[in-house]
Amino acid sequence: MFRHLFKRKPLALLHEEMRGDNRLRRVLGPWSLTSLGIGCVIGAGIFVITGYAAHFKAGPALLISFMLSGMTCIFSALCYAEFASMAPVAGSAYTYAYATLGEFMAWIIGWDLVLEYTVASASVAHGWSKYFQNFIGIFDLHVPSAVARAPFDFDPAKAAFAPTGSWFDLPALGIVAILTIVLVIGIRESSRFNNLMVAIKLAVVLLVIGAGAFFVNSVNWHPFAPFGWAGLSVFGHTLWGQTGPDGAPVGMLAGAAMIFFAYIGFDAVSTHAEEARNPRRDVPFGIIASLIICTVLYIAVTIVLTGMVPYNQIDVDAPVAQAFERVGLRWGQLIISFGAVAGITSVMLVLMLSQPRVLLAMARDGLLPESFFGAVHPRFRTPWKSTILTGLLVGAMAAFIPLGILAELVNIGTLLAFVIVCIAVLVMRYLHPQAERPFRCPWVPLIPVLGVLCCLLLMFSLPSENWLRLFIWMLAGMLIYFLYGRHHSTMAQRRRSGLHDG
């Protein structure tokens, strides 16, 4: 029985499925895919997470944290690009794991991706809510305090949860509902909407860099690493570096683990391989181009933000807009708040666009009920039922769970996905050395091994609670697999059919 758990899905079967009738519409070119990547990467990372990570984790050394996270992503992105060119179907890392590591590992990574995209979407919805309220506040408009934020929050400085006095976060819930409707309508409409949002926020990010550079005070960069250069722990036990009041590691490495959340956009590009016009060429291009562009912008914005405001005075909820207000640029606050609202909207759009496609791939393989998760709308050609379910889950989490808890939970799930993809490249090179690879990851095995080591380093730099939450989520996933997926998977049906025929 156990050998069946690691039964791999043949590449030939993947290519055969690509020619099926129940496929998604191929409408995305290289720059649309790059725009999707930028749309998902540039947003909450710049406009929200930078403030939180600089204030509580790394100080000005967050600049080096972004470099380390970006380097880790480059190693993983090269591995993703090779797989995306070989198997341009929906599912991303889930599909790659199925072809190399077997059904059980594919389920694990698929279930992990469900966690990643759902929680990331909810986290970004929190950032959207904060900037939206900041934007309308400029015009002396305010959301009622009873529906302005999650009902509780976690204060790292006091290491304690505290009630906020609110019932739920209404703006976060509202934007999730609107985007769910947009996503059901269709991928072409979603892509056009995303392209518009990306254009707006890129203009705002360049404005932040250009205008903010004139207000940088180098004094604010001293001390450069107030929390130290480390922050490495193993299951909550700090091995190297300092700990914060909540017992979690702090320092440059801990900052890198925290802001890794900001980089998951290039992973989303690979989930749309089935909707790319020329996936073997365009998906690797979109992955790598979006990652390079976004890394440069992240580093530049971090330099400006920590130079404008002392790290311990950076506003956690709306750091960039408040930095401009602090130096007297009220017009900048207005433009940045509007750009952040647009930018974070596109991040949510891409994340919520990607989640149903992972569920769709798992349903096609029989691991989830295909009648629901595999349903493609006859007119819009979108996975409409799973899109609506995603909207309901994301909306509930965004309305009731605070940002700090969600952001770190996203990171450990994303890093685990990257570890498996890097390992899968090595396995596939061994199992199918002659397979067609329109894009080849260079310097194998060095690049995949470095990707695994860097991802594990950042995973161990996260607080122990994240490991516990990941374990609970994975345990729930394994129960679903053994109770449903293992018996209903298409590979299991093929095995039974083969045995019966023989």
Attribute tags:
mainly alpha; two-stranded antiparallel ribbon; globular
Can you describe this structure?
Helices cover 67% and strands 4% of the residues. The chain has 502 residues and is mostly helical. The protein has a single domain, classed as Amino acid/polyamine transporter I, CATH 1.20.1740.10. Strands 1-2 form a two-stranded antiparallel sheet. The chain has a two-stranded antiparallel ribbon with strand order 3-4. It has a two-stranded antiparallel ribbon with strand order 5-6. Helix 3 crosses helix 14 (330-364), helix 5 (62-86) packs across helix 17 (403-431) and helix 6 (93-100) packs antiparallel against helix 7. The protein is globular, with a radius of gyration of 22 Å.
Give a brief outline of the structure.
With 502 residues, the chain is mainly α. It has 20 helices and six strands. It has helices at 2-5, 11-17, 30-41, 44-58, 62-86, 93-100, 103-137, 170-185, 187-212, 252-259, 265-271, 279-308, 319-326, 330-364, 370-373, 384-400, 403-431, 446-459, 464-488, 490-501; strands spanning 152-155, 160-163, 232-234, 237-240, 242-243, 249-250.
SSE layout:
Blueprint (H helix, E strand, L loop, with lengths): L1 H4 L5 H7 L12 H12 L2 H15 L3 H25 L6 H8 L2 H35 L14 E4 L4 E4 L6 H16 L1 H26 L19 E3 L2 E4 L1 E2 L5 E2 L1 H8 L5 H7 L7 H30 L10 H8 L3 H35 L5 H4 L10 H17 L2 H29 L14 H14 L4 H25 L1 H12 L1
Helix pairs in contact: 3-9, 3-11, 3-12, 3-14, 4-10, 4-12, 5-10, 5-12, 5-17, 5-18, 6-7, 6-17, 7-8, 7-14, 7-16, 7-17, 7-19, 8-14, 8-16, 9-12, 9-14, 11-12, 11-14, 13-14, 14-16, 17-18, 17-19
